[in-house]
Amino acid sequence: MQIERISEMNLSAKDDAEIASLVARCFPTDFGGRSFFIQRHHLRLVFRDGRSILGWAAASMVSGRCVYAGVADESVYVAASARGQGVGWRLLSAFCERADAAGLWTLQAGIFPENEASLKLHVSCGFREVGRREKLGKMAGAWRDVMLLERRSSVAGV
Fold first, then answer.
1. What is the SS3 assignment for 94?
2. Which of 39, 48, 44, 30 minimizes the C-alpha distance to 75?
3. What region, left, alpha or beta, does residue 18 occupy, with left being phi > 0 and alpha being psi -120 to 50 degrees?
4. How far apart are CA 55 and CA 22, in angstroms?
């Protein structure tokens, strides 16, 4: 098993399909495939077991304004078959290290309150809860609260 950085050059059609499948299991919505993953995200990692993707992490910049140049929204997804095996922790830990090296001083994550595994994973990787945003998103016709977590780098932006 290995973690690797993904760029447009090494993201295959099979990778596109595997990443879209991971997202679709979590969120029943249209997934933009390559354009979503490559163009929208600043830093991208995948966790592979041989040739299959078991999880991915990506960050998108929160703003184009220079004062927020080191702040990114982070997302991490792990395949159901790989949960409980340390894949999420290894992936998010490596992602945080690479985010530090890329000069990102704050990573923020929005997580549904009932996703206790993701909340625990983020806390174990140095994130802290900063609040709950009520009715922030709408999914399947229902308003959803979102827990807001952040991780401040001890390396970048200090």
1. helix
2. 44
3. alpha
4. 8
Task: Name the residue with tokens 């016709």.
Answer: 141
Helix, strand, coil distribution of the chain in percent, nearest 5: 35, 35, 30
pLDDT for the residue 7: 44
Residue 26: is its pLDDT beyond 70? no
What pTM does this model have? 0.79
Q: Lowest-pLDDT range, 28-42, 65-79, 128-142?
A: 28-42
Residue 149 or 25, more confident: 149
- What number of residues does the chain have? 158
Give the C-alpha distances (Å, rounded to integers) separating 112 from 19, 56, 92: 20, 18, 18
Q: What angle do CA 121, 157, 5 make, to 5 degrees?
A: 55
For residues 108 and 50, give the distance between their C-alpha atoms in angstroms, rounded to a whole number. Answer: 30
12 Cβ partners below 8 Å, 6+ apart? Answer: none
